[in-house]
Amino acid sequence: MARILPISDPDTLAVAIEALQRGEPVAVPTETVYGLAADATNPHAVTAIYEAKGRPRFNPLISHVADLEMARAHVVFSPLAEKLAEAFWPGPLTLVLPLSASPGIHPLTTAGLATAAVRMPQGFARDLIAGLGRPLAAPSANRSGRVSPTTAAHVAEDLGDRIGLILDGGPCPVGVESTILAVDDGRLRLLRPGGLAVEAIENIARMAVERPEPDSGQAVIAPGMLASHYAPDAAVRLNASAALPGEAVIRFGGVPLAGEAEARVVMDLSASGDLREAAANLFDFIKRADAAGATGIAVAPVPMHGLGEAINDRLSRAAAPRP
Fold it and tell me: Going by CATH, does the domain composed of 235-319 fall within 3.40.50.11030?
């Protein structure tokens, strides 16, 4: 089983850097979710991520950087991309940008595409990247298609027998993955809603963010674009107004569901209707509902504005038919 080391221990950073230098993947806390990190320039290290997760090789990985200088060594920033990075980095925004003429990010990380997804995380993860001196590829630290982890315990439950080291930084404050934007030809295209609200991006960019048409079948050029993803074992039922006997209930805003007295477990993403609190609780509640042995998971409606867009995106993928 994996070792679990607290990031508060002064020796943890050095231990993690040594593991990464050996090409080993390490589970790392970020402000969004826990990531399974490895050297994005090392093909053997990146392969170890795909193998540990059971992740399809066509699904690209985000490369996490310590600063803009590191990012510029691998991708090309337009003035619009620079403006967004300066406004929101470090933070839960990933930009998909053209690769530079001589990128160090390995093609396995980008799934052979001419673009790379890059992000600058907050806190310990950023210190770790700076200490390594190279970008870290870091998808969520869970088996492919499963619910993303927001605590070290979640990682240990899912990947503890597949990796050697988990760094414990406590619960992730954002709780959903980063927002992913493609920035090209003066356009902004939303590839995945996430921990940064689209409205905040539009306020800085002074332009609209284009959203894909439903069922557009757009190619996978960034993580989180597969139709079925974030899936628990139990079937997920969305926009529920009533619970069936034996289901788990995830409600929102303190509004009870009819029949929830017969539910296996009842949880409220945010009794006060706070979408930030709801996002932080989402994956943990899905895991807890699954662990309760429920026949299904009934989820109440969640508003679509702000972080509600990311919450609903994750729920719709969790409820999608399994491949």
Answer: yes
